[in-house]
Amino acid sequence: MKKLLAICILLAVHNSISQTINEIEINSKVNEVSVFIEGAQIKRNKSVNLKSGINLLKFINLSPFIEAKSIQLKTSKNVTVLSVNHQQNFINKLEKPKNLLAIEKELESLKDELETEKTYLSILSSEIQFLNDNKKIGGTSQNLSVNDLKTTAEFYANKLTALKLKELERNKKLTLLLEKEKDLNNELLSISGKKDFANGEILIKLETKTPILTDLELTYVVGNAGWLPSYDIRAKDVNEPVELIYKAIVKQDTKINWDNVKLRLSSANPNLSGVAPELRIYFLDYYSVPPQYNRDINEVSGVVLGSGNAPLPGVNIMVEGSTIGTTTNFDGFYSIALPNSASTLVYSYLGYVSKSINVSRAVQNVYLEEDTSQLDEVVVVGYGSKKRGSLSKELERKVSGVNIKGAASNNIIPLEQLENQTTVDFQINIPYTINSDNKSYSVDMIQYKLPATYQYYSVPKIEKEAFLIASINNWEQYNLLEGEANIFFENTFVGKTILDVRYVSDTLDISLGRDKNVSVNREKVSDFTSKKFVGSKKEDARAWNISVKNNKSNLINMIVLDQVPVSKLEEIKVDVLELSKGKYNTETGEVKWEFDLKPNEQTKRTLKYVVKYPKNKSLVIE
Predict the structure, then answer these.
(1) For residues 425 and 398, what is the distance between their CA atoms, to the nearest angstrom?
(2) Where are the beta strands (DSSP E) in 197-324?
(3) Under the phi-then-psi rule, with left for phi > 0, alpha for psi from -120 to 50, and beta for the rest, what region is 138?
(4) 286-336, pLDDT tens digit by residue?
(5) Which tens digits make up the pLDDT trace of 463-521?
(6) Tally of domains in the chain
(7) Are 614 and 608 in contact (CB under 8 A)?
(8) How far apart are CA 347 and CA 123, in angstroms?
(9) Could you tell me which residues come within 8 angstroms of residue 330 by beta carbon, excluding any fewer than 6 positions away?
(10) Which end of the chain has fewer surrounding CB within 10 Å, N or C?
C-alpha cells in the first residue's frame, strides 16, 4: 500500500513538472505598417525557441492603443495556438523618448531659474519699500543743514535708481524665461499629451510536442495614426498638361516609433478659396427670398485651444464623411478649404474629447475638453473569435483578391500601387521612419502629367471673378482620393482648392483658382427695372448686363452662368425677354453662355425677364 502511494506521488510530481509553463518575455521590432485614413495595422516578426509543452509568450513595450479584436498571429504548422490575449500594464509605463526627456529636464532647470529670479525681485521690492519707508530725515526738533539735505537726497536718488534698474533687468530676464517656458511646454504638448500611458502587452499561449524554433508574425491595429491625401496642382499655361503631385500627410502618436519600416498607405486641406461657385435653383413664391450665397464658408480658419486656453498643435480637423482634412500648427492655428457640400468639421486630439461642429462662419475657434475617461485595465479576446469589428472585416477583405497594378509613370519615391477590390494601397519600397511625435510628415508619392482641356468659368451673380477649370478625362486610372490641393498657375501660388472625386462622373474638373487677367462684371440695367400694374396683375421687370474682357495674350474659352427665377405656382409667370443667345434651362432657371474671346476682346450679354403675379400679393425679386 505504501509503495502504491509513493508511486502515485511520484507520478503527480512528474505530471506537475511536465505541465510547467515556459514563460518568455519578448521585445520585438515593428517591421511593417499599413496606414489607413484613420488607424494603422502593425506587423511584428520574431523568431522564438519554444520548449515542448505549453509556452507563454509576452510581447511587451507595445502601443497602449491596440484594437484588441484585430490581433492576429501566424506561426508554423507544428505549433498550436491556445489563446491570444491583450492587456494594459499600468505598473510599467512606456519608456519616454529621449527628446521628451530632454525637454522635461530643461523645464526642470528652467523652473529653478524662474524661482531664483522671483526671489531676487522679492528682495529688490523689499529694499525699495524699506527705502521709501525711511526717507523722512531727522525729528521735528532737529534742524538740518542744506549740505545734509543735499547729501541725503543724493543718496536716496542714487540708491533708488540702482534698485529700480536692477528690478527692470530682473523683470526682463523673468519675461524671457517665461516665454521660453511657454515654448517648451508647447513643444512638450506637441509630442506628448499630459497623460502617462500604460505599456501595451499581448499574451500568447502556444503548445508544441517537441522543442522548435518558430517564426511568429504578429499583426494588430492601433489608433492615433492616419494619413490624409494632399496634392500640388501646377499648370504653366493653357497649352500644357496639368502636373499633379500626389502626396500623403502621415502622422502618428501611438507612443511607439516606426523606425525603418516597410510602409504602406491604404485608402481603407493664399486666404482666398479657389473653389468655383455653384448656382442653386431660384424658386419664386410669395414671401420667399432669392437664394443667398455666402462665399466666406468655402474656407474655414481658426485656433484650437485646450485646457488653460493653451493652443493645441497637431489637432486633426476633418470634413465629416470625407478624407479632406488638415492639422493645427504649433500655435494651434488651422485653415481648411471646403467642398461645396461640406457642413460639418470634426476636431480630434489625443487625450481630448472629439467635437463635431457645423460650419457656420469663416472663422471658427474651438475649445476641446480633456477626456477624463480611463483606459480599460485589461481586455481579453480569445483568438479566432467570430465577433469582429468592421475594421477587422476590412483587413480580412484586403488579404484576398489583390491585383498588382503597374507602377505610376513618374514616382517621386519607389513605390507600387496595389488595387484591391474596395481599396487602393501605395506600397513604398524603401524603409521609412515615422516617429511618434504627433507631427505631420509629408510623403511625395507620385507625379502625374495629366492631359487636360482648359475653360474659364464665372458666376458673376455670386462673384465677379473668372475661375480657370481644367477638365481631365479617364481620371479613374490615377486612384485619386478627395483632399486639399495647393494650386500653382503660371509659376505662382494662387490658393487652395478641393479635389473632390466623390461625385465625379466621366470628367474630372479641377478649379485652378481665379485669373485676374479675365475681367467679369454684372450690372443691373436701371432703365429697364420697373414695377407696374396691368389689370389685376403686377409686373416686375429686371435686366442685367454681363460683360467679360480677355486681358490675356491668348484665346480663351469662357462659360458664364446666371439664372432666372423659377415659379412654383400657376398664378406666377416668368417671361424671359432676352438671353443674348444663352441656353435657358426652364426647370432650374439656369442661363448658360459659352463663347471664345480673342486677346483684349470684350463681349456683353444681356438677361431680361418679367415676373407677373396678382397685384394683391408680394414677391421679393432680385
Answers:
(1) 10
(2) 198-208, 212-222, 225-235, 242-252, 258-266, 283-284, 299-305, 316-319
(3) left
(4) 777 777 665 556 788 899 998 878 888 888 898 887 878 888 876 788 888
(5) 999 998 888 888 877 878 888 888 888 888 888 887 877 766 778 888 888 888 899 99
(6) 2
(7) no
(8) 47
(9) 186, 187, 190, 311, 313
(10) N
* DSSP-derived secondary structure letter, 476: G
Q: How far apart are CA 86 and CA 66, in angstroms?
A: 8
User: Helix H segments across 23-97?
Assistant: none
What does the alpha-carbon distance between residue 573 and residue 540 come to, in Å, rounded to a whole number?
Answer: 11
Angle at 69 between CA 68 and CA 73, to 5 degrees: 90
Query: Side chain identity at 590, as an amino acid letter?
Result: E
- Backbone φ and ψ for 378, nearest 5 degrees, come out as -140, 130
CA-based end-to-end distance of the chain: 112
Amino acid in position 354 = S
Is 313 contained in some domain?
Answer: no
* Cα 481 from chain centroid (whole Å): 15
Length of the chain in residues, anyone?
622
Last residue of a domain, one of 156, 191, 226: 191
Spatial CA neighbour of 284 closest among 524, 55, 564: 564
Q: Is residue 274 part of a domain?
A: no
Q: Is residue 290 part of a domain?
A: no
Closest to 573 in 3D by CA, of 565, 563, 585: 565
531 CB-near residues (< 8 Å, 6+ apart) = 538, 539, 540, 541
185 assigned to some structural domain: yes
Q: Identify the domain containing residue 552 by its residue range.
A: 519-614
Using left for φ > 0, alpha for ψ between -120 and 50, and beta otherwise, residue 513 falls in left
Set of cell numbers at residue 237: 499655361
DSSP strand pairing (299-305 vs 366-367) = parallel
The rounded distance, in Å, linking the Cα atoms of 317 and 555 is 41
Give yes or no for a contact between 496 and 487, defined as CB atoms under 8 angstroms apart: yes
What CATH code is carried by the domain that includes residue 607?
2.60.40
Residues 6+ apart with CB under 8 A from 280: 291, 293
Q: Report the SS3 class of residue 167.
A: helix
DSSP string, 290-327: PPP--GGGGEEEEEEE-GGG-B-TT-EEEETTSS-EEE
Please give the grid coordinates belonging to residue 412: 517621386
The CA distance from 261 to 524, in Å, is 63
Cell numbers at 194, concatenated: 499630459
In angstroms, rounded to a whole number, what is the distance separating the alpha carbons of residues 447 and 245?
A: 4
Rounded to 5 degrees, φ, ψ at 95 are -65, 130
Helix or strand run (H / E) with residue 2: helix 2-18
Provide CB contacts within 8 A for 561, sequence distance 6+: 279, 457, 458, 459, 461, 590, 591, 592, 593
Pairing of strands 507-514, 573-578: unpaired
**CA 302 to mean position of chain CA atoms:** 13
Contact 562, 591 (CB under 8 A): yes
